[in-house]
Amino acid sequence: MARLFLLSSVFSVSVLAASSFSIAQDAVQDDHRTMKSEHKAASSDHQKWMLKISQMKAEHQQALAALAKLQAEVLQHEAELELMTLEIQRHEMEMKSHDQAIDRHEKHGDGAEHDEMKSKHNEIMTNHAGLQQMLDASLDHHSALIDGIIDFAQSHMNRFHSGEGDHGHGDHEDHGDHEDHDNDHDHDKHEHSEKDH
């Protein structure tokens, strides 16, 4: 009888142990499935993050290209100013040469030479007025170009450092503002070309 009771007890313990082991195994499997599921979700996040990073890097290139265009505009305007400086220097030399011709005419000139001197003077002063118009047009272009760039840069840096801007995908809405700025700049450039003509 005692032996039967002992066998029954051992069997019961074995059943309970097997049941507990099965439950533990089920819990482990559930944990494994949960971890794998979270890994899969994290991998999906990684793919989305990499896409966003790639998009931002591409937009960096677009921004650098836009800055290069602005730099080219500044360099072009600088070249125009250099040419204008040379033209002013040439005009100054022309006036000095004319002054010398006037001095010679006063010493031993005739009436016909005076008419030529007057005609040359009128030509010089017409060129002088043209230089004034060129300078005025250049000043207008300079103000539109430089003020626009500086104002935009200052506004952008203030917004960037103030934390108002979202450094993620939300910044894409600002591209319209960049295009408007470019259109305004093209309009200023067109006005400058008309004044030159």
Provide tags for this entry.
197 residues, mainly alpha, 3 helices, disordered C terminus
Overview of this protein structure:
The chain is mostly helical and 197 residues long. The chain has helices at 2-108, 111-162, 175-196. α1 (2-108) runs antiparallel to α2 (111-162) and α2 packs antiparallel against α3 (175-196). It starts with a helix and ends with a helix.
Question: Layout of SSEs?
Answer:
Blueprint: H1 2-108, H2 111-162, H3 175-196
Structural class designation: mainly alpha
What percent strand?
under 5%
Mean pLDDT: 78
Radius of gyration: 42 Å
So how many helices? 3
What's the end-to-end separation, in Å?
Answer: 124 Å
* H-E string: HHH
Summarize it.
The protein has helices at 2-108, 111-162, 175-196.
